[in-house]
Design goal:
The chain has 420 residues and is of the alpha/beta class. The chain has one domain: TIM Barrel (Alpha-Beta Barrel). It contains 15 helices and 12 strands. The strands form 3 sheets. It has an 8-stranded parallel beta barrel, surrounded by 5 helices. α3 crosses α15 and α13 crosses α14.
Length: 420
């Protein structure tokens, strides 16, 4: 095991011990998964699992990380948005290749197979013969219904996730398998789906919700995730820790929730059976934990997910959302709330000004996220600024350096070991 990984594990162990009660572990442990035919739940008496062993310094992932410059390391943790358009795709591909992101998220309206193929071929040609580990993974929202970027000519239009969930298992398997085959053929690596939030008539999510019954959500989400994984596409279930009980849009405002066993069940039920998929962590506060800190920026919140499921790849939901920039109200104990999210690398005085995207991104890395996702309105110029600021932070902060290297080893390890 590398020195950086050993040091980071030691730091995280001390922090985890100080945090005490594992807020999510108890709801997870109470769930009865027997109806799903899943393995027995892990005993609540066992110690939390440490981060997965990344091997010796000579291992490919550790070697790959050591060969990158600080700006390259930061870029590899970013999922950079790419709005596809016929006129600008070639120019944008050249800029993306120069940026060297670890992941690219496709955006656009009714994207056709021809446009996707042409754009990705242009990007691949500009990346050239560099090592495969630097090639960006291609991600896309493909839930169905209103949230389906690849819906133009050459791609089948999917029903909403709610409609898919209502299909009989055999019909649903055919629907999802057809979508998975199309994603695989288009060389899509990551699908931001399925949604595993539990709700009935959610005012914002609407038919993006599968069902109000957590068992139904778990069964259908496992089925869809398993099919995607079998076709070489990484499913990313969302939105941890569950936003079915929210009343608004996190793109616009922050909310605090109480995590119930019902909300936790789909995450536990899917991850017990598919422990090496992705999970998208969102920007809600968690009552009785850190109610004024977005889960995505809380070491406490993210680390409890990784303790229970150490093989999971953790994605921070779009960091340009308003909820991600939430600051505790005046008079709150900000240092206690945010200090946990940033380990011991937190300044005593909290800034009064709104958080910059670079600061939010830094907190997301320190919280434990492996991939930083950004929305379609974030420009490459803005992300270049974020990259340079975090690269400088990497050089000046030992704790941030350890966190970046750990996250990057996990991501590179996934890239090197993934199956297509």
């Amino acid at each position: 095991m590398s020195r950086s990984t050993l040091s980071l594990i030691a730091i995280l162990t001390v922090l985890a011990s100080a945090l005490g009660f594992n807020y999510f572990f108890q709801p997870f442990a109470e769930l009865d998964l027997s109806k799903l035919g899943s393995p027995e739940a892990a005993s609540t008496e066992q110690s939390p699992s440490p981060a997965p062993d990344q091997g010796q310094d000579s291992d490919p992932a550790a070697t790959a990380v050591s060969e990158l410059t600080p700006p390259q390391k930061i870029a590899q943790l970013m999922a950079v948005p790419w709005v596809l358009a016929d006129q600008a795709s070639a120019t944008q591909a050249a800029l993306l290749a120069e940026f060297q992101p670890g992941m690219v998220t496709l955006f656009g309206e009714q994207l056709s197979r021809q446009l996707v193929d042409t754009s990705l071929a242009s990007l691949s040609a500009r990346i050239g013969a560099g090592p495969d580990r630097l090639a960006p993974l291609i991600a896309v929202d493909h839930e169905g219904g209103a949230v389906q970027r690849l819906a133009g000519q050459g791609f089948a239009r999917l029903p909403s996730w709610q409609e898919v969930c209502s299909q009989q298992p055999g019909e649903m398997a055919q629907t999802v398998a057809a979508a998975a085959r199309q994603l695989q053929a288009a060389e899509i690596d990551v699908v931001f789906a399925p949604v595993v939030d539990v709700a009935e008539n959610h005012p914002v999510l609407g038919d993006r919700i599968c069902d109000a019954d957590p068992l139904v959500v778990t069964e259908r989400s496992f089925q869809a995730s398993n099919i995607y994984q079998q076709h070489g596409v990484l499913p990313v279930i969302k939105h941890f820790p569950g936003i079915g009980r929210t009343g608004g849009d996190l793109h616009r405002r922050f909310e605090t929730i109480t995590v119930t066993p019902e909300a936790a069940q789909p995450f536990r039920g899917v991850l017990e059976q598919l422990p090496d998929i992705g999970v998208m962590v969102t920007h809600v506060g968690v009552a009785n934990q850190q109610p004024e800190v977005p889960c995505s920026l809380s070491f406490d919140c993210v680390n409890q997910l990784k303790q229970n499921f150490p093989e999971v790849l953790v994605f921070a939901d779009a960091l340009d959302m308003s909820a991600a920039a939430h600051q505790p109200p005046e008079g709150a104990d900000q240092q206690a709330a945010q200090g946990t999210a940033q380990g011991t690398d937190q300044q005593a005085d909290q800034p009064a000004a709104p958080k910059s995207l670079a600061q939010i991104s830094q907190e997301a890395i320190l919280a434990g996220n492996d991939v930083l996702v950004y929305g379609l309105e974030v420009t490459l110029e803005e992300l270049e600024t974020v990259k340079q600021q975090l690269a400088e932070r990497y050089q000046n902060s030992p704790i941030f350096r350890l966190a970046v290297d750990d996250r990057l080893e996990r991501l590179v390890n996934f890239k090197l070991n993934r199956k297509r």
